[in-house]
Amino acid sequence: MPKLTVEDVGEFEIPAGKRLVLGLTDEAGIDQLHACGGNAKCTTCKVQFVSGEPTQMTEAEKAVLTAKGLSGVRLSCQLTCDHDMTVKVISRVAGSGRAGPGNRPADAITPVAVWVV
Asked: Which domains does the chain have, with CATH numbers?
């Protein structure tokens, strides 16, 4: 199982292939935002990689990050845990003013992942 290290929180074993957003919420117990339900539309699930950042991303992730002018962050809803990684969580319910994280994302990446480098 891949190891997910969450900066200032701890290390967690995540089932291989699980979406990062779900690993953060389920295994790490993080109150990670995902306002659009994990569909690469809102960027509330963004994280910063400390190490192990995947080299590819989905077309949907690339499009929304480009449209919003964001760099140095990734969308946890568009990544799977398939190797060891360390992230800094920057989008949490606590302090956001939101009532909750958003609807639970599906188990599979949505929209259907089309990978780019």
From this structure: 3-94+106-116 (3.10.20.30)
